Amino acid sequence: MQNNLFDLTGKVAIVTGSTRGVGKAIAYRLAEHGARVTITSRKADACEAGAKELNAVFAGSAIAAPANISSKEDLTRLVAQTKEAFGDIDILVCNAASNPFYGSLSKISDDQFRKALENNILSNHWLAQMVAPAMIAKNDGAIIIVSSISGMRSSVTTGAYDISKAADFQLARNLAAELGPHNIRVNCIAPGVIKTDFARALWEDPETLKFFQEKSLLGRIGEPDDIAGAAVFLASRAAKFMTGQTIIADGGVTAR
User: Fold this and answer.
1) Which domains does the chain have, with CATH numbers?
2) Could you report the per-residue pLDDT of 83-118, keeping only the tens digit for each?
3) Which residues have a Cβ under 8 Å from the Cβ of 60 and sit 6 or more positions away?
4) What percent of the chain has pLDDT over 90?
5) How confident is residue 27, by pLDDT bands cut at 50, 70 and 90?
């Protein structure tokens, strides 16, 4: 029996949006625990830099595979490149997302609404479809969707984003139901405000930052590594009896 419940040696992972922020932290921690990781985002140079940085610490642990999550063709190529380099995918982390509109739902365009749904839900569904057959064949696998506590709350400014993140919870539950008989676990992580470029508007202003700090039971906003730890847990044997669930990592904001 393996002694380390968090050992990921020999596992192959794809982490979308992994050139910065939460995705980069998740990729690093997966590699630290022994996984081989595909670094992917839209920009090729950022992917190459991210893979180079990871390989400098954990030799041979990473490849770069640029992909736009809105393109099914790109995602098909991403999975194929990963399989060619490392073999079948054991861990899929759907982290990349977009928030194309800030304001009232009464003002959002159809294209903006569609982009939020396609990038934040449909792309995750596509990737799950692509990696599931090999996971089924091995009777093992972990799929992790990085959602948000925004999907648990209402907002007058980020409605489409919130709706898409709420849908991710249900996507995980449905995939867990379908894939559970094949020992494939599907879970979500719901972060609160994390200090990333994506959420810069929520923490850069001192008054806004103070507002979010005061809402947190821990008195602070999150760091990318706070979410990476949850991802390592869900990817590992430590979470082998956990599926269809959401880990809320928000510093206690939703517990108030």
Assistant:
1) 12-247 (3.40.50.720)
2) 999 999 999 999 999 999 989 999 999 999 999 999
3) 36
4) 90
5) very high
Query: Which pLDDT score, from 0 to 100, does residue 159 have?
Result: 94
Q: Is 161 a catalytic residue?
A: yes
Nearest to 252 by CA among 138, 149, 101: 149
Residue with tokens 């903006």: 112
Options 86, 161, 212, 233, the catalytic residue: 161
- Helix/strand/coil (H/E/C) assignment for every residue in the chain: CCCCCCCCCCCEEEEECCCCHHHHHHHHHHHHCCCEEEEECCCHHHHHHHHHHHHHHCCCCEEECCCCCCCHHHHHHHHHHHHHHHCCCCEEEECCCCCCCCECCCCCCHHHHHHHHHHHHHHHHHHHHHHHHHHHHHCCEEEEEECCHHHHCCCCCEHHHHHHHHHHHHHHHHHHHHHHHHCEEEEEEEECCECCCCCHHHHCCHHHHHHHHHHCCCCCCECHHHHHHHHHHHHCHHHCCCCCCEEEECCCHHHC
Residue 16: is its pLDDT beyond 50? yes
Of residues 135 and 199, the one with the higher pLDDT is 135
Nearest to 256 by CA among 203, 212, 216, 200: 216
